[in-house]
Amino acid sequence: MNIIKTSIEGPLILEPRIFRDDRGYFFESFSQRTFNEEVREIHFVQDNESKSSYGVVRGLHFQKPPFTQSKLVRVIQGAVLDVAVDIRRGSPTFGQYVKVELTGENHRQFFVPRGFAHGFSVLTDEVVFQYKCDNFYAPQSEGAIAWDDPDLGIDWQIPADKVILSEKDKHHPRLKDAEWLFDWNENLY
Predict the structure, then answer these.
(1) Is residue 185 part of a domain?
(2) Which of the residues 43, 131, 171, 172 is marked catalytic?
(3) Is 131 a catalytic site residue?
């Protein structure tokens, strides 16, 4: 597995070694041992899968303590633009983001550590998206910031009139107005 550092410390892109032949392909999509050695020691406890259509934007979501989550995300079918925003007050990269295109063809995965808000936009007719979480979902611990916060300036690669949002995602605060964010000096693990 090739581990690619991003412009912000923490989020990482993981590229598997793919073995192709005339039958198709094979790759190891996850190894706890390799992940612990190459990325960080984490115990994933929940796998999720979603299916979405073109124009859907989900995010920017996070969970507050004690249910803070890291995520390891990937696309099985289709393509997304995946985004992680640093929401750790005091961090030298606070308010900056990393984005990566994940597709069913490139088999890349994106590690989103605790302290980051996460979201994605669907770039193809349909997408099947999977993610591992290192903490259980807890609705009482949900947090989010606006996907279209002008201070972040994220280009989701979807025309504004084609964006499809959940009712919840239409009403999140801008980063500067968020009532709760992480503290960069706090150990989130």
Answers:
(1) no
(2) 131
(3) yes
